[in-house]
Design goal:
Largest sheet: 6 strands, mixed
CATH topology of the largest domain: D-Maltodextrin-Binding Protein, domain 2
Distance between the termini: 24 Å
Oligomer: single chain
Shape: globular
CATH architecture of the largest domain: 3-Layer(aba) Sandwich
Length: 296
């Protein structure tokens, strides 16, 4: 094992949010850990090189991408720190000018989304099935990007859009009946498919132990194995940066295994059901002996 407290620099993928800004601008610092932040404007553009090239030492990563990475043996371990979490009900939209539809109308309709493996899509499909009775295998899912994890293959109910098409364009022109957008309604002509989406999101969070997880933090297994002090310090810095942000949604940006266990169990269940991972993974498998104890 490397000497404890020996300084280390970590090549890091981390978006800039209120809860991470103090870490990224240097207000939160460490005597043993420095971060070499990747120059990316949107964190998800780094997810593919993370899971295919093992490019980063520490990274923000969408939870479904991490579940797939774990299933296919990528050498990263989860740190129980949520950096992006939010309600999902507002992310599926449609064009009411082409006729009103409700979740119960989705069977046989065409729904576009960036990728079938997109975490937002996994949450929405699960929520639609559990709370609105939608059989997601009866929907035509139209995608525009390949999965981040190279080993994964989309199931047969997923279709790739033509290369010259765009999601918003197809939705506005009626080639799609609905679309999933991570940041919600992208055009004033569109509206949410789920009625009173904001209210529905709050109710869901109250019933399920907090808002759905989008992105958590992972660290290279070799670092976690040889430098538990570094893992603990990264966790401390992330938590301190969140606390310096002041008011944040504590039901979304949860730290520690137990506060996140229920949400992780739900998304693992959705991932199995939706054929996103080949087997059920237990929550405790996502962590190692060091990360499992963080927050205690």
């Amino acid at each position: 094992m490397t000497n404890s407290h020996e300084p280390i620099s970590l090549h890091t993928l981390l978006g800039t949010y209120p809860n991470t800004s103090s870490l990224k601008n240097g207000k939160v610092q460490s005597p043993i850990v420095t971060f070499d932040f990747a120059d990316v404007k949107v964190a998800n553009t780094g997810f593919k090189p993370l899971v295919r090239e093992l490019k980063f030492d520490v990274a923000e990563l969408a939870i479904v991408t991490y579940l797939q990475a774990k299933a296919y043996g990528k050498p990263y371990v989860l740190i129980p720190a949520v950096v992006v979490g939010r309600g999902q009900h507002h992310t599926i939209v449609y064009n009411p000018q082409r006729g009103r539809i409700a979740p119960s109308d989705l069977k046989g309709l065409r729904v576009g989304l960036r990728a079938y493996t997109q975490t937002t899509g996994a949450w929405i499909r699960g929520i639609l099935e559990e709370d609105y009775g939608v059989d997601f295998t009866g929907v035509e899912w139209i995608t525009f990007e390949e999965p981040h994890v190279a080993e994964y293959r989309d199931p047969h109910w997923v279709e790739r859009a033509p290369a010259d098409k765009e999601l918003l364009q197809m939705l506005l022109e009626g080639e799609l009946d609905a679309g999933i957008f991570a940041n919600g309604v992208p055009d004033s002509r569109l509206t949410t498919l789920i009625p009173d989406a904001e209210v529905a999101s709050h109710k869901w969070a109250e019933c399920h132990g907090g808002a759905p997880i989008n992105h958590m933090v992972v660290i290279r297994e070799s670092i976690a194995r040889t430098r538990p002090d570094v893992v603990k310090e990264v966790y401390r810095l992330l938590l301190e940066s969140k606390e310096q942000a002041g008011r944040t949604d504590t039901t979304a940006l949860r730290f520690g295994v137990e506060p996140n266990r229920r949400s992780l169990e739900i998304i693992i269940g959705y991932a199995v059901q939706q054929k996103l991972i080949p087997r059920r993974i237990e929550v405790d498998e996502l962590f190692d002996d060091t990360t499992r104890l963080l927050g205690y």
